[in-house]
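User: quick one
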Amino acid sequence: MTVPLQRVLRAFLEDPAAPRYGYDLMKAAGLPSGTLYPMLARLEGQKLVTSAWETPQGEGERPRRYYQLTGEGIRVARLELAQVQAGRGRAPLRLGRPAPGSL
Amino acid sequence: MKGERWLLRVGEFLVARAARRLPAAARDRHHQEWAAELPVILGDPEIKPAAARAGRMLWFAADTFRGAALGPGPARYRGAHRGAMTKDGVLKSARWVGVGFGLLAVLLVLLAAQAFLIYRIIFTESLAGYVASVLGALPYLLFLRFRKRPGVVTFSEFMWLDAALVAAATGPHLSALAGHLGWGHALPFAPISYCGYAVCAACISVAVVIMTRNVRRDGRPDTQQRSDHA
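Assistant: Done. Structure below.
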């Protein structure tokens, strides 16, 4: 598992129930947008993350898209991070190419 | 913040360009998502001063542009407008690599000629030498005049190509002659010395553009038919 992916998963696991926006995750994980968004798309393609549009608060305000770990995502993330912390990162989280139509 | 609207426009332009690199199905969604983040970054109270927020927003947009072009890991994401690499594509790429090496070789030869002329200007100043160097380009000009021209091409295309090649061949000689006649300092690294390089570079660029157009035109079915008839 790559270090950026570990950072993203840790940021999600700080509060797994809380929806996180792309910019929030960028700040929490310390990653640039060009790294984060493709990663989120891959996680979403693997059903580890789900995303939804927020309801606009004010008139003319653009809705933002927020991301959240799925139940399976929480389980896999905890397992993977535990393995990394234990120094046994031998079962890497396989992230293939994004599905057609995704990023 | 002063100039906020202008900054947002720049950011939106960049994320729009980034979204255009994505498959059509994902384009609108990501464009909206990224564009919605821009005003949030620009108004982020945690980042001070305002210039830092502006920089952060532009960096976000620029890096999104980068990320849209790259796939996961080392694999490069290919844009929606491009298909998978085929055998023809590989051959075409290899051909263009060959063209690139050829042009590089030509450029190196021209630069070597320029360096040689500068050396001669320093150590053997004589008008006869410059005239001889200009005459040295004559065989090349004669080659251009009498070579066989394949296919059916318009006069204007070859006229431009020939003009570019002639200028590329004679540029260094003429610049050296200009230096000798006192139109500049005939010394290395002086402005006049760069004239030849500039002329060469410009002419090679023009030649590359015209060659590219010719090759593309040759690839079209109607052109191939014309060539077959010819």
